[in-house]
Amino acid sequence: DQQVKQNSPSLSVQEGRISILNCDYTNSMFDYFLWYKKYPAEGPTFLISISSIKDKNEDGRFTVFLNKSAKHLSLHIVPSQPGDSAVYFCAASGNFGNEKLTFGTGTRLTIIP
Amino acid sequence: DVKVTQSSRYLVKRTGEKVFLECVQDMDHENMFWYRQDPGLGLRLIYFSYDVKMKEKGDIPEGYSVSREKKERFSLILESASTNQTSMYLCASSYPEGVYEQYFGPGTRLTVT
Predict the structure, then answer these.
(1) Which residue among A91, A99, A103 places its CB closest to the CB of B31?
(2) Contacts of A104 in chain B (CB under 8 A)
(3) Phi, psi (degrees; rounded to nearest 5) at A84
(4) Which of A76, A97, B16, B91 is the most exposed place for a label (fewest CB within 10 A)?
């Protein structure tokens, strides 16, 4: 039972354009969401997060949007740069009494120069 | 900067061998986690630990055990390695209660032949 889903395994975007990565979740108890970026042969690194009390969080070129009614979040990267080419994972956690994260399956983003 | 290190980057073992994967973090984090990453399946939680000598099963604990004798060290043990345990293994740590961002090590690529 995949509680966090990333339906696009891959995405290609021209350098300078906007990249939009999507994530859907099914568990309404999730109240905190994170995006991680992973390069080959490295561990994932934390990128940006959002609490369910917000619908938007921005950090430089990265913005995460949360639509609670649709159980959907998205990561916008603008402008996209070649160094953004990586696998992106969304993750979710909730007030379950622990800090366990549930990860999506990942989206491989390729920025075309 | 948080540093999470894993004992090996690449490991090749034979079926039936006992395998130890070691993880050390230097930030005095209470929480530590072991994941495996497989194509199309994302990151799946194997085991986690909230404190020394404490452990809890994640989503896919079968065939694995863990040990946490010291706060900074969390070991993953494959009692009898099988070919379906060939994977990328990732260790992570995080601050205690209420903080969800996890910091990952570089990963161990384990091949079981």
Answers:
(1) A99
(2) 42
(3) -80, -10
(4) A97
